[in-house]
């Protein structure tokens, strides 16, 4: 029975208790049977003697019915003060349930005595013995107050209930007679008699703060002044109200209505507002029950008048309507009384239509009247002063509102006033939702519910508050108002949580009444309703606080889980850590998968170590230092995107790494107990062995090792992760863009189709794998002096089952990059670039000496290399590319750590145009060398001629940090003019650019230097600790000065002219001019020698001015010419030698001849 | 007197929230909700949506007047054609002013909606909208 049913006042409350040995389940079964027969028609109740039923003779209104409300919970002592005002709240009856199998006569007798002793306030006690076999003799339980109920027959129970009704009616009569002798006190006054009763006043029910009632009454205050007339009439009215209540319980509705009407009249006149309002409410119940019994309803005039006066305008219509109703009702009255069985109008003499019409009119009248009546009731409650005897207890106020809200709810669900709705109200029959515009609107119901949810609830005991709020929540739930329901639950949780700070024990009692699974259900429902994140988080916080107590931790875990999933932006670091700690510590009650759906950010598969995509080089060793790049992709916009999808290559049987990027947006380190990579169907591919911890507030990359078993394609769809405290679950790879979108709009995520994708890797069949077994350098380290060369060996083993073909060797060292940068520098001159390129390509740190082209499976191959001490180097590497076929080579890298120290440095150089006496080469080169090492060097320098024959060599010992000068003859042949005119070459395959910046001098200087370097060379030797070391002296630091260039630049053909005649020149005397041409080249020259005098008119000559002359290589030829000056003056002779096939020699300084005049 | 205005999307998510006080009768324009009520206003508004869902079908008007009460507070509602709910928590009955206020806010909302950069159900973060709503609050409430 719903305790907040509108017709609660019509029930006789009974407490049901188990007697003797009886199992819980059996007890419940019997109780259900009892409840199924809890309604007794007065027609079936035996009248007994008329004296027995002094007041409540069932025959007085055989149409009525008597209802029991069987409860297993004793009445709350809190409300005992209300018994005078609302007698129906009492548990008048105590029923014991015994089982035949365990019952004996003596025990039952004792139990009866015990019940009487323990429940003295009940007016009647009874024991039902259930499960009595049909053949059992009734004499076994021949005790007054004990009734047997046969196990098979329902009739037996019905009969027993009728007997019980008869007996209780008798006891009620007796009780009523006794009670009428006493006085009826208002709850406020009665509460003073009792301790532990707190009744909050319902004044200012819409204010913010209800005051706790502090009555200005003394215990004997009102009564000590003597009984005035008003008090007398009040007592009379209250007595009548009491009788009305008992008539109502006894099912005699007309008598109840009469008593209530009279009571209302008297109470109104004596200004007893509280009791008057209460009476009006009971009138409403009577009217509704009459309506339900399909008895014509006549609203008592006192109620009508009061309501009219209270809401004059509203009820104008009502008055007219009720007049018409009264006529219809009168018409029916006589006939309806004849049909005692409810709903059975078989013996109608009247027109059925007429009855229906009258009923319908009655219903609509009641539909209009009841809300007004209840309005009036509340208004009268509000008129009561909270400081006086009239104080309205909050419980009464709230319950009245609740009862009426419950009535309206049933009407709304039933679609207005109809028999289904009425049945639901009176009999609590289940209802299906049948909303119609005729029923009350949500707003109307809400007004009544709002009365319930008043601030004064806060001062009521927590248990009472919870009961009210639960009842309210139930109403909202029935109406489908989930948001309202959530609000009430939120208030309830908040109230309960606050109570823990004030009165721990009571709050604990209330909380213990809630089953964790129920709380979980509430949480699940509310989280869905509260889409508004602020609200959800606030609620979850409170809920978490409330449930974070023993026995409820599993619920708290669920709340914490929810909180972390939606409130990471709001929660502080300590809060987050606390929540996570709880989830982890209560691992058994894991609410589900890890809450962050974006845990997995990305997965990448790293190709197997050293696998290059493809190579085109053949097996010969080549000194490449470039790395083979990926194959070119020809982009076709019309091609399907999948074809462009890049696939990394991994090798079967070899370890590869799958990098999993996981995010932890929280402020605490997140533990992952299990992590596995899964394919598109969720099957595990590989996993991490140990537990992991993700650092707070960052994205971490976790490498997962994977060894593919056979060739094919590896597809990765996501991961399986078991995060601390949560159950394990799958996290699929999502589109990265979608992930971005989702993280921004996480709350707005509405699309259930969140696209996933996979990544794939090609698994190749087994490939050869080479490993370095031995390196002759100690620990891979080498110390060299500049220019020194040392050999080293490396042993490489093929550890795979496939033969390895060596594709190519490559070397790289630490100077490669700086040199490349220097070459690319925009301001570098051609000569500089050539020098850089020379060091890049010609001075190699490592050179291969011996190699093999194939290493069979399991074999070890030895490679010999030479290391060269190149200045500025600190590391080098040998890159060995190999493979099984043409595609997909692998690279083995042998790293070398090298330290190069300076040895002999070239400090200064000069070339002097001074030949040693009598010697053909006429140049001397001066070289200053310095020992930059800590030990003495023996340095030998030599010069060579153009035919690579040694010309001279000098050996000197240079002490540490000392300099020494070397003087060496240079058999310099010069550089041909053709060579000097050539552009500076490039050693790398650079794109040709027309060089406009380099001057002719720079080009000449470059070629002269290159030539000079061919003429000179040197070595150094060092013996330390019995170890002989040697190397080349680096002379490329040599730079030519302008002076040196001038010295080194030699003409290939030289013309000299002289007068061989010994006597001085005179007019008309013969003179001989000898012209000598020197051919310094290695070729024989043919050409035409031309003499060019400045004045051909005043001279005579013998022979030709042009003569063919041939000159042997590296020799000279003289040509003589006789001439005769005819006049005095100055004569100039010059000569040009034109070489056939290009080339020319010119006498740069003409021969000047003076011929004096004759005096 | 204090007011709380919330514009709620179809999914009950707030797209705009504002707490303000009356600027009339010497008010300073600042909200003065007491602590308990200050936290509760969003809950109250959310709960009132249940009533709005029922009431909106009973009238062709967009302005639904006062739909709900909580303690001494009233909740007025306005439903746009796109089912965006404007909810206002207030303390005194002032139907005409609130109606005018809602209509003008609706005007602003429609202008926001026409922006190509605004998507329905997104939060309104435009400072211009906020300034104008505050100006309307000063004007009418």
From TrEMBL, chain A:
Domain Trs120/TRAPPC9 first Ig-like per the UniProt entry, residue ranges: 619-731
Pfam families from the UniProt entry: Ig_TRAPPC9-Trs120_1st (PF26254), Ig_TRAPPC9-Trs120_2nd (PF26280), Ig_TRAPPC9-Trs120_3rd (PF26282), Ig_TRAPPC9-Trs120_4th (PF26283), TPR_TRAPPC9-Trs120 (PF26251), TRAPPC9-Trs120 (PF08626)
Trs120/TRAPPC9 third Ig-like domain: residues covered: 924-1049
Chief location category: Golgi
Superkingdom assignment: Eukaryota
Keyword Transcription regulation carried by entry: no
Domain Trs120/TRAPPC9 TPR region per the UniProt entry, residue ranges: 366-583
Subcellular location(s) of the protein: Golgi apparatus
All copies of domain Trs120/TRAPPC9 N-terminal, residue ranges: 3-302
Domain (Trs120/TRAPPC9 fourth Ig-like) ranges: 1065-1139
Keyword Cell cycle found: no
This protein's GO CC annotations: trans-Golgi network
Protein name according to UniProt: Uncharacterized protein
Species of origin: Wickerhamiella sorbophila
TrEMBL record, chain B:
Record CDD domains: TRAPPC2_sedlin
GO cellular component terms given for this protein: cytoplasm
GO terms classed as biological process: endoplasmic reticulum to Golgi vesicle-mediated transport
Protein name: Transport protein particle subunit
């Amino acid at each position: 029975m719903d305790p907040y049913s509108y017709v609660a006042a019509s029930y006789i409350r009974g407490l049901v208790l188990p007697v003797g040995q009886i199992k819980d389940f059996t007890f419940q079964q019997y109780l259900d049977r009892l409840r199924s027969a809890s309604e007794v028609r007065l027609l079936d109740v035996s009248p007994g003697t008329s004296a027995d039923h002094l007041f409540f003779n069932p025959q007085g209104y055989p149409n009525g019915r008597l209802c029991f409300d069987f409860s297993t919970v004793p009445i709350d002592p809190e409300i005992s003060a209300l018994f005078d005002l609302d007698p129906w709240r009492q548990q008048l009856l105590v029923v014991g349930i015994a089982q035949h199998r365990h019952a004996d006569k003596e025990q039952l007798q004792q139990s009866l005595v015990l019940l009487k002793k323990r429940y003295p306030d009940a007016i009647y006690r009874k024991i039902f013995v259930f499960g009595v076999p049909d053949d059992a003799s009734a004499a076994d339980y021949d005790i007054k107050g004990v009734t047997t109920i046969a196990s098979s027959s329902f009739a037996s129970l019905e009969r027993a209930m009728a007997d019980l009704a008869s007996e209780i009616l008798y006891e009620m009569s007796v009780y009523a007679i006794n009670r009428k002798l006493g006085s009826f006190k208002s709850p406020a006054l009665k509460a003073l008699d009792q301790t532990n009763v707190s009744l909050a006043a319902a004044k200012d029910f819409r204010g913010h703060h209800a005051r706790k009632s502090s009555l200005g009454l003394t215990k004997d205050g009102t009564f000590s002044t003597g009984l005035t007339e008003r008090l007398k009439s009040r007592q009379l009215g209250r007595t009548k109200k009491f009788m009305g209540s008992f008539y109502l319980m006894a099912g005699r509705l007309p008598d109840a209505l009469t008593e209530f009407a009279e009571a209302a009249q008297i109470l109104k006149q004596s200004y007893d507002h509280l009791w008057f309002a209460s009476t009006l409410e009971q009138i409403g119940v009577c009217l509704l029950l009459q309506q339900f019994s399909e008895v014509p309803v006549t609203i008592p005039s006192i109620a009508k008048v009061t309501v009219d006066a209270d809401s004059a305008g509203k009820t104008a219509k009502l008055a007219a309507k009720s007049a018409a109703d009264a006529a219809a009702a009168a018409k029916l009255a006589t006939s309806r009384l004849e049909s005692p069985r409810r709903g059975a109008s078989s013996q109608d003499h009247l027109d059925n239509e007429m009855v229906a019409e009258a009923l319908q009119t009655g219903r609509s009248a009641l539909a209009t009247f009841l809300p007004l009546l209840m309005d009036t009731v509340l208004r009268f409650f509000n008129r009561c002063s909270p400081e006086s005897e009239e104080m309205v207890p909050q419980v009464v106020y709230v319950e009245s509102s609740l009862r009426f809200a419950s009535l309206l709810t049933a009407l709304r669900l039933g679609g207005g006033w109809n028999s289904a709705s009425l049945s639901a109200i009176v009999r609590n029959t289940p209802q299906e939702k049948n909303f119609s515009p005729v029923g009350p609107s949500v707003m109307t119901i809400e007004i009544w519910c709002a009365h319930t949810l008043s601030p004064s609830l806060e001062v009521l005991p927590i248990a009472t508050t919870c009961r009210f709020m639960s009842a309210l929540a139930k109403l909202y739930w029935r109406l489908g108002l989930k948001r309202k329901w959530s609000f009430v639950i939120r208030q309830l949780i908040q109230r309960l949580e606050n109570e823990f700070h004030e009165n721990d024990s009571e709050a604990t009692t209330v909380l213990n009444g809630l089953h964790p699974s129920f709380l979980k259900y509430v949480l699940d429902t509310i989280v869905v309703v509260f889409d508004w994140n602020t609200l959800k988080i606030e609620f979850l916080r409170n809920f978490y606080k409330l449930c974070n107590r023993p026995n409820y931790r599993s619920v708290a875990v669920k709340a914490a889980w929810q909180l972390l999933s939606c409130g990471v932006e709001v929660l502080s670091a300590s809060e987050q850590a606390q929540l996570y700690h709880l989830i982890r510590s209560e691992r058994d009650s894991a609410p589900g998968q890890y809450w962050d759906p974006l845990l997995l950010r990305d997965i990448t598969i790293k190709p197997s170590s050293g696998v290059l995509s493809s190579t085109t080089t053949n097996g010969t060793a080549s000194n490449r230092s470039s790395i083979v790049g990926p194959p070119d992709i020809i982009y076709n916009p019309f091609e399907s995107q999948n074809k462009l999808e890049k696939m990394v290559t991994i090798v079967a049987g070899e370890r590869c790494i799958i990098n999993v990027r996981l995010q932890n947006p929280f402020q605490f380190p997140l533990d992952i107990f299990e992590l596995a990579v899964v394919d598109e169907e969720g099957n595990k591919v590989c996993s991490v062995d140990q537990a992991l911890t993700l650092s707070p507030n960052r994205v971490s990359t976790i490498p997962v090792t994977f060894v593919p078993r056979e060739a094919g394609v590896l597809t990765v769809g996501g991961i399986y992760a078991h995060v601390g405290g949560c159950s394990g679950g799958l996290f699929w790879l999502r589109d990265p863009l979608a992930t971005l979108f989702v993280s921004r709009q996480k709350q707005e995520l509405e699309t259930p189709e969140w696209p996933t994708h996979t990544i794939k890797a090609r698994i190749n069949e087994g490939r050869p794998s080479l490993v370095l077994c031995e390196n002759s350098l100690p620990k891979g380290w080498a110390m060299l002096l500049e220019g020194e060369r040392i050999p080293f060996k490396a042993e490489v083993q093929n550890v795979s089952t496939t033969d390895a073909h060596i594709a190519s060797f490559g070397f790289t060292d630490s100077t490669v990059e700086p040199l490349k940068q220097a070459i690319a520098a925009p301001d570098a001159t051609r000569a500089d670039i050539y020098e850089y390129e020379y060091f890049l390509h010609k001075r190699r740190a490592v050179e291969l000496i011996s190699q093999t082209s194939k290493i069979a499976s399991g074999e070890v191959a030895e490679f010999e290399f030479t290391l060269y001490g190149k200045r500025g180097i600190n590391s080098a590497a040998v890159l060995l590319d190999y493979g099984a076929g043409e595609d997909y080579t692998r690279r083995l890298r042998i790293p070398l750590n090298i330290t190069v120290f300076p040895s002999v440095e070239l400090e200064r150089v000069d070339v002097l145009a001074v030949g040693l006496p009598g010697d053909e080469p006429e140049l001397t080169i001066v070289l200053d060398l310095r020992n930059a090492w800590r030990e003495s060097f023996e340095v030998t320098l030599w010069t060579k001629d153009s035919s690579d024959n040694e010309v001279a060599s000098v050996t000197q010992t240079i002490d540490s940090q000392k300099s020494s000068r070397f003087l060496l003859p240079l058999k310099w042949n010069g550089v041909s003019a053709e060579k000097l005119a050539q552009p500076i070459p490039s050693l790398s395959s650079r794109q040709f650019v027309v060089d406009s910046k380099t001057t002719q001098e720079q080009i000449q200087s470059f070629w002269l230097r290159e030539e000079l370097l061919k003429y000179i060379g040197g070595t150094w030797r060092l013996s330390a600790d019995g170890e002989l070391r040697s190397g080349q002296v680096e002379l490329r630091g040599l730079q030519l000065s302008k002076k040196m260039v001038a010295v080194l630049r030699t003409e290939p053909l030289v013309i000299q002219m002289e007068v061989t005649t010994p006597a001085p020149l005179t007019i008309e005397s013969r003179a001989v001019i000898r012209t000598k041409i020197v051919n310094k080249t290695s070729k024989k020259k043919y050409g035409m020698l031309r003499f060019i005098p400045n004045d051909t008119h005043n001279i005579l000559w013998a022979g030709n001015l042009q003569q063919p002359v041939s000159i042997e290589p590296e020799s000279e030829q003289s040509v003589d010419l006789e001439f005769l000056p005819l006049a005095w003056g100055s004569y100039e002779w010059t000569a040009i030698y034109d070489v056939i096939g290009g080339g020319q020699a010119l006498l740069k300084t003409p021969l000047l001849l003076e011929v004096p005049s004759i005096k | 007197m204090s007011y709380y205005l919330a514009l709620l999307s179809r999914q009950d998510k707030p797209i705009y929230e504002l707490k303000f006080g009356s600027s009339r009768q010497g008010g300073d324009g600042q909200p003065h909700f007491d602590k308990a009520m200050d936290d509760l206003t969003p809950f109250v508004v959310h709960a009132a949506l249940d009533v709005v869902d029922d009431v909106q079908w009973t009238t062709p008007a967009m302005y639904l007047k006062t739909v709900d009460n909580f303690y001494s507070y009233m909740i007025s509602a306005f439903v746009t054609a796109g089912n965006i709910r404007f909810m206002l928590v207030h303390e005194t009955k002032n139907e005409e002013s609130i109606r005018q206020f809602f209509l003008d806010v609706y005007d602003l909302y429609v202008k926001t909606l026409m922006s190509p950069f605004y998507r329905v159900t997104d939060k309104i973060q435009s400072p211009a909208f906020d300034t104008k709503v505050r100006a309307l609050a000063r004007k009418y409430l």
